[in-house]
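User: I'll paste a sequence; please echo it back and then give the predicted structure.

Assistant: Echoing your sequence first, then the prediction.
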Amino acid sequence: MKLIETPIPGVVVLEPQVFGDERGYFLETYNEEKLADLDFPHIFVQDNLSFSRRGVLRGLHYQWPLAQGKLVQCTHGEIWDVALDIREGSPTFGQWHAEILSEGNHRSLYIPEGFAHGFAVLSETALVAYKCTAPYRYEQDAGIIYNDLQFNLPWPIENPQLSPKDEKLPRYADVASERRPQFELIFEIEE
């Protein structure tokens, strides 16, 4: 397993070793011990699976104050997956990183706690599996509209299909301050 840093600290790409031959392939999608050796310390408590058709856009979602980190993988099809830093006070606030995740590249993208997450389906259908660092809580579910001009994300699809819930998401500027993720600077003191 290979861990690839992105320009935003905490947002990382995981690339597994794939063993393939004429029969097909095998890979580990998750190995806690190997990831711990790569200084990837996250523990996951919930797995989710999403099926979508071409042109569907899901997001931008987050949970607050019980924030969720997500390890996202597309096991069938292809998606444009994005992590957007919306943590108040973060030095990378407003920055985003996107990856093409597909059944062909087998990559996963880790979206840290306090980031908004969304994806657009580029293939006919897509099956997306993701692990979460905290359980889903309805009362803490939150999001911002995918086309918020404050962030100006270059979505690779036009006229996306949205859920009724996602159509009604607010702009970030309209999110109440207590519903906005906060950046926490943690100092480690060496003795």
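The longest strand covers residues 46-53. Residues 32-37 form the longest helix (6 residues).
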